[in-house]
Amino acid sequence: MANTSEIDFRSLVLDAPLALDSGRELAGVQVAYETYGELAPDRGNAVLIFHALTGDQFVAGTNPVTGKPGWWERMVGPGKPIDTDRFHVICANVIGSCLGSTGPSSAGPQGKPYAMQFPVITIRDMVRAQMAMLDALGIEKLHAVVGGSMGGMQALSCAANFPERTDRVLAIATTARHTAQNIAFHEMGRQAIMADPNWQGGDYYGGEAPAKGLAVARMAAHITYLSEEGLTTKFGRRLQDREAKSFGFDADFQVESYLRYQGLSFTDRFDANSYLYITRAMDYFDLAEEHGGLLADAFRGAKDTRFCLVSFDTDWLYTTADMREVVHALNAVAAPVSFVELSAPYGHDSFLLDVPALDRVVEGFIG
């Protein structure tokens, strides 16, 4: 993982220990966040964006870790669907991560990294930390919460557990619970990390990180973010050219090189232990189970909240059927909800890519 110690992450430390679903408390929690646009005098224009598994707080502008544009640069900014000329946009790095917020690589009570002594966290814990962040910022109620993928899980969790904190919920390409297939893909990635000799039971800080295992985990996950149509259009069965091979790639097919690049570049910015903890939090996520086994009960307190749910026809990770389950649960409690399945060739990653129809949905709902 790249050294992020020299980056001055904008952050705050929560005043009180954070109570976790595991029954433990986490003291001195640091939450790193970024804001875009001005907060209105009445504090009524705040929009909280939740990021996905490997995302971060840098939704727009230049990411200081990678030097690349923010992960939702096309969606957030002046005159864009989430217009920072009108809204005060906040995005926080989730707890358990490695980009400024408290996670396994953070110093624990003994002064050394928590590593695998970090407590188990859940999606609800992540949201709970961000609600405490809003308290510290003096923001009682949000105009909207927005998220895709794991960010969508957080948006739904926010609506279920903190319905009084937001007027609108926009959840994109997400689900109310992981399937066995979702869990299986994550477990394959976790096993790849733990099989790397450099993992050392999680105590690799100060030494060689388990980069090979993390790269394989990222490769496996990245396949689930794409569609067969997208991969075929982009790569087909095309072989590598000599120029690509001269850069050290020994893969025969272009798609192999693409996946290897995705894996290797990921290890430059992410921590392997964080990957273990966050994927486990996603696997534990089950809104129905949290509320007595009936998904509709999760939203009984959110009848005055407006919902917009979006799925993509080529997303086989979180399908349209998954999203319809949430729609039916909202209908059961008479919560105002709109739902749309958009057509896009990119699979699960469609919410991050150029899908003009999504821009129109986001702008219309947030506005």
UniProtKB/TrEMBL annotation:
Biological or metabolic pathway of the protein: Amino-acid biosynthesis; L-methionine biosynthesis via de novo pathway; O-acetyl-L-homoserine from L-homoserine: step 1/1
Residues the record marks as active site: 149 (nucleophile), 315, 348
Protein residues bound to substrate: 218, 349
EC top class named in words: transferase
GO molecular-function terms, A-Z: homoserine O-acetyltransferase activity
Record's GO cellular component terms: cytoplasm
Keywords associated with the record: Acyltransferase, Amino-acid biosynthesis, Cytoplasm, Methionine biosynthesis, Transferase
Protein biosynthesis found in the keyword field: no
Alphabetical list of InterPro entries matching this protein: AB_hydrolase_1, AB_hydrolase_fold, HAT_MetX-like
EC number(s) stated in the UniProt entry for this protein: 2.3.1.31
Localization (cell): Cytoplasm
Keyword Transferase tagged: yes
Superkingdom assignment: Bacteria
Homology family: Belongs to the AB hydrolase superfamily. MetX family.
Function (record text): Transfers an acetyl group from acetyl-CoA to L-homoserine, forming acetyl-L-homoserine.
Protein name per UniProt: Homoserine O-acetyltransferase
